[in-house]
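Backbone-to-sequence.
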């Protein structure tokens, strides 16, 4: 089932088993260059096309996994489901399944693994989400799980 993004999502809207599929995004050469420069990730596999083609198992410049994680999280945020998020509580089980190269398009299937009321924050809930990042060929490229604190409908707006 694909989520309806026409309304604001609160903790109560997260049902176990519900899957949201994000839009796709093509990872560009500019994305790679900007991310590597910003993060200082000057590894030859990212910055030297000839080296990557000749001396790596991928035979191409791959995109850093943390860039793919960042893009995947951005795609999910654009779904509107985290706009009432109050805290990012954790990232678990990050697995890199296949490489991503410039020109690949990624999208994310996000499935609610669990949702429970918060013990310490009234009117909030703890939501655990499974993320499956896929490329344009529908191959898994990354999987991970996030835990978030999400405001409920009755929560004050400034929490």
């Amino acid at each position: 089932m694909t989520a309806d993004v026409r309304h604001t999502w609160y903790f109560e809207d997260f049902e176990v088993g519900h899957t949201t599929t994000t839009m796709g995004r093509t990872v560009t050469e500019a994305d790679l260059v900007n991310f590597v420069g910003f993060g200082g990730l000057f590894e030859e596999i990212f910055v030297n096309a000839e080296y990557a083609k000749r001396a790596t198992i991928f035979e191409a410049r791959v995109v850093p996994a943390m860039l793919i994680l960042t893009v995947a999280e951005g795609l999910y945020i654009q779904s509107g489901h985290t706009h009432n998020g109050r805290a990012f509580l954790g990232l678990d089980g990050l697995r890199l399944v296949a490489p991503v190269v410039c020109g690949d398009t990624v999208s994310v299937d996000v499935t609610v693994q669990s949702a429970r009321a918060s013990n310490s924050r009234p009117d909030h809930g703890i939501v655990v989400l499974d993320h499956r990042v896929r490329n344009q060929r529908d191959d898994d490229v990354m999987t991970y799980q996030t835990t978030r604190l999400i405001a409920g409908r009755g929560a004050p707006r400034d929490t």
